[in-house]
Specification:
Blueprint (H helix, E strand, L loop, with lengths): L30 H11 L12 H12 L6 E4 L6 H8 L3 E4 L8
Helix pairs in contact: 2-3
């Protein structure tokens, strides 16, 4: 057994056919990746945001800039569904701006 944490949905078994054991998630702060990107871009690691998919980025932006029960976001369909579901689940409001644009 590799000793993964089941509550974190990690693999409890050693990786098959691999020299290294990939039972654990990588660094959640992405320090090595941010350092490498900082060197390539001339930014500091503190200026770099890496998310686990677009949902995490959207959620964090709303948590930073919106106050529940006070703020709303504007969505314009057709758009990504997280723009509507994130504010709904966190008790922020949203307003829909309909457009007469035709997407084909």
């Amino acid at each position: 057994m590799g000793g993964g944490f089941l509550d974190a949905n990690e693999n409890p078994f050693a990786s098959v056919g691999q020299e290294e054991n990939y039972t654990r998630y990588p660094d959640p702060l992405q320090k090595a990746v941010k350092e490498a990107l900082a060197q390539q871009t001339g930014l500091s690691p503190a200026q770099i945001f890496l998310g686990n998919g677009s949902d995490e980025g959207i959620d964090l932006l709303l948590r930073i800039f919106c106050q529940p029960g006070k703020d709303k976001i504007l969505i314009m369909p057709p758009t990504y569904g997280m723009y509507q579901s994130a504010p709904t689940s966190m008790k922020w409001g949203y307003a829909v701006c309909r457009s007469n644009l035709i997407f084909r």
